[in-house]
Prior knowledge:
disordered N terminus, five-stranded antiparallel β-sheet, mainly beta, six-stranded antiparallel β-sheet, 4 helices
Amino acid sequence: MPSPVETAIRSVVTKGIMGVAGFNRAHRKSSTPNPYLTGIHQPMEAEYTLTDLKVTGTIPPALNGLYLRNGPNPFSPPNPATHHWFVGDGMLHGMRLEGGKALWYRNRWVRSPQISQALGEPPAPGPRTPAGSESPNTNVVAMAGRIWALVEAGGLPVEVSDTLETRARSDFGGLLRQGYTAHPHLDPLTGETHAICYTGQNQTTIWHTVITAEGAVRRHEPIAVQNGPSIHDCMITRNYVIVMDLPVTFSMAALIGGASFPYRWNPKHTARIGLLPREGKGSDILWCDVEPCYIFHPANAYETEDGKVIMDACVHQDMFVDGNTGPNGSICAFESLEIDPAARAVTRRIIDAAPQEFPRPDERRIGQPYRYAYTVALPAQGDPSFLGDPRLFKHDLGTGTRQVHDFGPGRMPGEFVFVPAHETAAEDEGWLIGYVIDTASDTTGLVILNAQDFTGPPVASIALPHRIPPGFHGNWVPLG
């Protein structure tokens, strides 16, 4: 737990602490380049609208919609000594597909008041929060009939149009005053969206939030925690919401020292995974201890006939051991975690020991038994810029096998999302869509793969004449 002195500092002299932190952040220097401001991560400096797009192969005519991706792209040059990958201004990248054609590509900064002012635009309407990013940089999702740019730790959702223009910040009628999450999960069986939310200003409470298909917040249930854990994602099953309370927590020392992302590996924090009954009180959560580890992203979870919960995830043995510029720690593996609510125990089993991240399933199977998961390979020996391996993996969890799609030397994929071919398509009947950087030419392609011919050549690739910096998360938004 925080010491009484630390608690007093947080509650009484926060402005003073933030002043010291700001001074130290401005005056820190580094003798080496920041890997998240150079190379593949070098920010874009302008917004584009491109319509004359070169297509190799054939875009499936059934793909009528918008592929969107979000990621950090600092608007103004930050201090390289203190810039962290997770805190750059959000930039959206979108590609509109219709009738077998690529109609346009656009990139737009999510408008914070500062960005609007710098561009000479009126500020976007909507409430503001005392903590959190006002230019969400982590995910972009369709929810309740609208498109939202998202970030965690206190930032509000920002609604954007289907041409990527910022419309408004929203706290959903005051019910999300303390921010939202980067990773909500739509339950395909109910149409409701579940999330676990936290804010950097509250070290003792997180929330389970449910948003209805109509866009109303019907549940915002507090859950007691300690030390201010960083909870990047969650998962759902038929009866539970899975809460990952793991040993990355708020660090006052890192904040005072000028860190722009003040979360660090905390070996004193008990690692545990909680099973919260979907309609239960926060006090009803079943906490199950687990070996110390950190999980950014689960692929999916479901319940077995004997009452256990299976969650498959990319699991890091530690994370943010120093954490000054981005993710760092031991290489992760793709694992299956069996959570036993009766024994209050978690058993970990390695599915694939190769380092990998950004797992995605067929989203129609969220919370239910499923067969396929798709992940992005990470460099075997680690990399200062985190990414850099040219491969995607397709895991067949039914047979225990793995297929590999290798884009070739110098080509670097980001997260790929699965899009079913039609409403009743089989679980891998459809396409995988994502951006691939060509480091030799400093360009990018939006690549479409046939999920059932995973190792085969792309169905189509749409060329962009510039490099899109590796961002975080993308999604397909069908359009009528």
